[in-house]
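Structure ticket #2291
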Amino acid sequence: MPSSTSGSRTSPRRPSPERFEEFTTRYRAELDENPAVEQLLEIVRSSDAVTMLYAAADTEHNGAVVLRDAVKAALSEA
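Resolution: structure written out below.
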């Protein structure tokens, strides 16, 4: 049985809209340090289309949105 406080915390995978800016900042810093991001960018650069799948109830406040925006930003800087 879940504890009575289970709804009071936000999972790292489920950022609340109120804390999305903070989540975005932390996740972007994580992405900046992750060598796999460069591999992803190479895949994106060499492909005509890339489909990113995610499973989140909130389509505006989730890690996939942050990753998509980070990829777009990196590609526009190149």
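Closing remark: DSSP finds three helices and no strands in the chain.
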